[in-house]
Design goal:
Radius of gyration: 22 Å
Number of domains: 1
Distance between the termini: 27 Å
Largest sheet: 2 strands, antiparallel
Number of helices: 17
Shape: globular
Order of helices and strands: EEHHHHHHHHHHHHHHHHH
Helix content: over 70%
CATH superfamily: Amino acid/polyamine transporter I
Strand order of the largest sheet: 1-2
């Protein structure tokens, strides 16, 4: 067992999981959350998909999403300020609501992170085709699959080798890409001559049903903001750095999304291409603004950002998978770490294989790359919504048990649940409702398949508990031990 001395108070914090202890600074921890959010992803793909539903209310949709996820972040931090482990929300919810809720969360998050990786790999392939198209290479099924293989293969290698290398790569690539997009946004505003758009500011032609429908993919723009919590064993001073990363990454990304979506809607006004019909919105904006070379730079930045998000999703999903393997929910070989790299190499490898197979089969069957992106991104959002709602329920329950519950904690929990319930209803739809219209096919079938997946996960847990009750007891003991060893550390 390895032991580190904390620089600020010389407190010993042993590593219990086999992962490399206390090796990541705050900048590296927040890099995990920011790369999983992938701010570049929203203006390059997501904003156009949200616009298809919300129209000129796209910026307001992102305001609602940011507000709701800040409340969810506050509920997450009720746990993150008190304990840390690679189990993330899976461990937090298990402690707050019991093993069944924790395992359901674990299943939901594994699906969420892996499907996020699938979606962003499709985004990587889309922008790869855009770039190669500029030099005469025509898009094809084989090319898309090849680009997906390059993306997941590279991400697997980095995640397998070194978590510090992973975070450094993610932070640097995302910062460069976001910088280019901000510069283009300023050019677009200068070209338009004014930042005032009365149609957007007065929500002219927008409707509440469209804004609600847009919330599903708007929430997907932020998913993974909590993934810094999966670095509980690897972060320095985790009770301080992880909660800060959760909130700061959400607020900064949210402001970026609100402003850039507003600028993009403004930039496409009067153009020959509709915002939601563009395969590469920022490239088209660069053409409209007379800086076409910017489109090439942003396409390169977008590909790098999609790669960084794939890497972040692989890191986070593998650590949930790894933690559940350690607890006996999956075969214990999943819970093993690499002897030299100190990474969850088996969990990383399995997650990477699954993440490659599904989009490959989907595209090979004839689906367009951006359609596949929408499919996988929507399903991934369901997994995150389950986790976000359960953590918002678990927070006040846990605080009450600890005799630390305040009225403001209850308010934050209710607000977190309420905001997340809106995209849940939006994704399911209510027959005859203008506010919650039933999604078109194939999106209307996705909630049923996701529910079946969760039922299978819950059934597996019940079988496991009946056959091996000691496994559940050991799981609870391990989560409790993780919490106890942080009890006397400084609270933030």
């Amino acid at each position: 067992m390895s032991i580190n001395l904390k620089a600020n108070n010389l407190e010993v914090r042993p590593s219990q999981s086999g992962l490399r202890p206390e090796c990541l600074s705050f900048s590296e921890v927040i890099a995990q959350s920011i790369a999983n959010i992938a701010p570049t992803l929203t203006p390059t793909v997501n904003a156009a998909l949200v616009f298809a539903s919300a129209g000129v209310g796209t910026w307001l949709t992102f305001v609602f999403a940011t507000t709701g996820l800040v409340f969810v972040g506050i509920n997450i931090n009720q746990f993150a300020r008190r304990s840390a482990s690679p189990g993330s929300l899976y461990a937090y919810i298990a402690r707050g609501l019991g093993p069944m809720a924790g395992v359901i969360t674990g299943w939901a998050l594994i699906l969420a992170y892996i499907f996020t990786a699938m979606a962003v790999m499709c985004g990587f392939a889309n922008y790869g085709e855009v770039l190669l198209g500029a030099v005469g290479v025509n898009p094809s099924t084989g090319l898309a699959i090849f680009l997906i293989a390059v993306c997941i293969g590279s991400a697997w290698y980095v995640a397998y080798k070194d978590i510090e290398l992973s975070t450094v790569v993610m932070l640097a690539t995302e910062a460069a890409s976001v910088g280019l997009i901000i510069i283009l946004g300023l050019i677009v505003l200068a070209k338009k001559g004014t930042p005032i758009d009365s149609a957007q500011l007065t929500l002219q032609g927008a409707n509440s049903g469209g804004i609600v429908s847009g919330l599903v993919l708007a929430v997907f723009s932020y998913v993974g903001f909590e993934s810094a919590t999966t670095l509980g064993d690897e972060a320095k001073n985790p009770l301080r750095t992880i909660p800060r990363a959760v909130i700061i990454s959400t607020v900064i990304s949210g402001l970026f999304f609100i402003v850039l979506s507003y600028v993009e809607v403004l930039g496409f006004q009067g153009s020959s291409i509709a915002f939601n019909k563009s395969d590469a919105p920022l490239n088209d904006l660069a053409k409209f603004s007379g800086v076409e070379f910017f489109g090439v730079l942003i396409s390169i930045g977008a590909m790098i950002s999609f790669f960084a998000c794939t890497l972040a999703s692989l890191n986070a999903g593998a650590r949930i998978f790894f933690s559940m393997g350690r607890h006996g929910i999956f075969h214990n070989f999943v819970g093993q770490t690499h002897g030299r790299n100190e990474t969850p190499h088996i969990a990383v490898t399995i997650a990477a294989i699954v993440a490659f197979i599904a989009p490959t089969l989907t595209i090979a069957s004839g689906a367009k790359v951006l359609d596949a992106y929408g499919y996988f991104g929507t399903v991934a959002t369901y997994g995150f919504l389950v986790a976000y709602i359960l953590i918002s329920i678990a927070a006040p329950v846990y605080l009450h048990r600890e005799h630390q519950l305040r009225i403001t904690d209850i308010i934050f929990a209710v607000l977190g649940i309420g905001f997340m319930a809106i995209p849940v209803l939006g994704s399911i739809g209510l027959p005859g409702s203008d506010l919650f219209p039933v999604p078109a096919a194939p999106y209307n079938s996705f909630p049923k398949w996701f529910l079946l997946y969760i039922v299978i996960g819950a059934a597996w847990f019940l079988v496991l508990r009946a056959r091996s009750p000691q496994i559940i007891q050991e799981m609870e003991a391990d989560i409790e031990a993780s919490h106890t060893r942080f009890r006397d550390m400084k609270k933030v």
